[in-house]
Write a structure and sequence with these properties.
Blueprint lengths: L1 H15 L2 E6 L7 H7 L6 H7 L3 E2 H8 L3 H12 L9 E5 L2 E3 L4 E2 L1 H9 L7 H18 L3 E6 L5 H11 L3 E4 L7 H14 L5 E3 H12 L1
Parallel strand pairs: 1-3, 1-6, 6-7
Antiparallel strand pairs: 2-5, 3-4, 7-8
């Protein structure tokens, strides 16, 4: 057990020396809270702001998903380590990558929420791949990319792996856990100041594929 702890500490120490940016999967606007915001007559304060001046996308998704997305955003804010001139957090949407601070209106939210998130949907994939290629150019080849989102389907990892390959990482502790458990872990890491260990998505996918043969 002591050796495992030392290995984990060494991995985390090595992580802190590398530039690192986070890609966050979006909150699902089809639930009750999302529909409260998408309702053109919604009366909650955030819904009114969306109709009038707009609101930051990160705040909107945090409202919709008050545990999982909040955990992802808080964690990424705490542990991001981007290279100079590059943002540390990007949200995957139906309109490509967007910054958490990007102000969106009700019409914007309808647009990005109505696009079907599927690796085979070119309406989703083309703008995402374009933004990912631009991000790779800005961030350089020494920056790791950590996905805080599902790797159970190809909807996120297929386009991101194509651009970033072995540099696409995923929290090892997330494997086999649901969204609620992941959100709790992320918030606990924030309060404790303890970053998770990451594994290359390529390695995880290959390992899962071998175990299913």
């Amino acid at each position: 057990m002591q050796n495992d702890d030392m290995l984990t500490a060494a991995v985390r120490s090595a992580q802190t020396l590398r530039s690192r940016i986070f890609l966050l999967s979006p909150a699902n606007a089809s639930g009750i809270k999302g529909q409260r915001l998408l309702n053109p007559t919604g009366r909650c304060e955030l819904a009114v702001r969306l109709r009038d001046s707009g609101a930051p996308l990160g705040e909107v998704y945090r409202f919709i998903s008050s545990l999982y997305f909040r955990g992802k955003l808080d964690y990424a804010e705490k542990f991001k380590n981007p290279p100079d001139g590059v943002a540390g957090i990007y949200i995957i949407t139906g309109a490509g990558l967007m910054l958490p601070e990007t102000v969106v209106t009700l019409n914007d939210l309808h647009r990005i929420s109505s696009t079907f998130i599927d690796a085979k949907n070119l309406e989703y994939r083309r703008p995402l791949e374009s933004d990912l290629l631009r991000l790779r150019e800005l961030a350089g080849y020494d920056t790791d990319v950590v996905l805080l989102g599902s790797i159970a389907t190809p909807k996120y990892i297929a386009p991101i792996r194509r651009v970033f390959g072995q540099r696409l990482l995923f929290p090892s502790n997330f494997l086999g856990l649901g969204d609620m458990s992941r959100g709790s872990i992320l918030l606990r890491c924030c309060s404790q100041g303890s970053e998770l260990a990451y594994s290359p998505v390529e390695t995880i996918v290959s390992s899962v594929s071998r175990s299913q043969v």
